[in-house]
Specification:
The chain contains no helices and eleven strands. By secondary structure, it is mainly beta. Strands 2, 4, 5, 6, 9, 10 and 11 form a seven-stranded mixed sheet that branches. A four-stranded antiparallel sheet has the order 1-3-8-7, with no helix packed on it.
């Protein structure tokens, strides 16, 4: 499956952005889709995930209450609505897909076989 992330940009602190991750070349609803982010000089970290059978998304504590992940299987697309953005949210955001991820491993980037190219989010303070 190929993933294409988009929607990044420059926004002031307190603002909002919506990222999209469009998938092609695979059966979309077979995959767990997850957002990771990587700030300059730091490791890639988990942001949010939506497993294929789950109705609710999972979130990192740092974004809980501010970010909302949704998926539209008909459009083969997932979204990450980011509200009340903070300077520390500045990073390149990646979407990733895996066909089978157990709950305890969702945040482990090594579980994912497919990655989008990343989209840069810059939050000015």
């Amino acid at each position: 499956v190929q993933l294409q992330a988009s929607g990044g940009g420059l926004v002031q602190a307190g603002g909002s952005l919506r990222l999209s991750c469009a998938a092609s070349g695979g059966t979309f609803n077979r995959y767990t889709i997850t957002w990771f982010r990587q700030a300059p000089g730091e490791e890639r970290v988990f942001v949010a995930a939506r497993r294929r059978y789950d109705s609710n998304a999972l979130y990192a504590n740092s974004v809980k209450g501010r970010f909302t992940m949704s998926r539209d299987n008909a459009k083969n697309t997932v979204y990450l609505q980011m509200n009340n953005l903070k300077a520390e949210d500045t990073a390149v955001y990646y979407c990733a897909a895996a066909s089978g991820v157990i709950l305890s491993a969702v945040a482990d980037s090594r579980q994912y076989d497919y990655w989008g190219q990343g989209t840069l989010v810059t939050v000015s303070s």
